[in-house]
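Backbone-to-sequence.
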């Protein structure tokens, strides 16, 4: 008995579609070639605007993480945040701690990476635990492929208690 080619997609076309989808996902997650941007000289008479100096992968401590975080606390939390938000990561929580201040916590990605306004983004739930005060913080981190993370919509999570 002969099979009719019009009964649905062949196994080969399904495999090609799967491979194409995987290639697109890898490109969106930064696995493709780096994007190089060359800027020429601005036209005569155009004012030159200096770009701000970027000194870290995520901007200064957001208010939602709390005023009680010292610079070293935030440096450690920021490093954990960069690992947790990585679109190539395994989606597991990443812990941080500072034995000098006693503060510690974890960053837990809450969902898969997604694209928004040409940025790769990922939602997270972070905990900040101290001897006097503990809380949870929700937010979204976004970045251009290969660029630094910036935090969006950082806020204290509802139902977070104080110890």
């Amino acid at each position: 008995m002969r099979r009719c080619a019009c009964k649905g997609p062949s196994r080969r076309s399904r495999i090609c579609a799967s491979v194409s989808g995987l290639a697109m996902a890898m490109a969106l997650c930064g696995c493709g070639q780096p994007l190089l941007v060359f800027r020429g000289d601005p036209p005569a008479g155009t004012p030159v605007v200096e770009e701000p100096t970027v000194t870290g992968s995520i901007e200064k401590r957001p208010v939602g993480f709390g005023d009680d975080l010292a610079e070293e606390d935030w440096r450690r939390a920021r490093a954990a945040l960069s690992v947790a938000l990585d679109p190539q990561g395994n989606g597991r929580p990443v812990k941080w701690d500072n034995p000098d201040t006693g503060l510690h916590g974890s960053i837990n990605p809450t969902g898969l990476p997604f694209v928004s306004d040409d940025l790769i983004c990922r939602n997270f739930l972070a905990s900040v635990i101290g001897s006097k005060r503990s809380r949870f913080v929700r937010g979204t981190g976004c970045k251009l492929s290969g660029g630094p993370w910036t935090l969006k919509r950082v806020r204290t999570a509802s139902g977070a208690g104080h110890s």
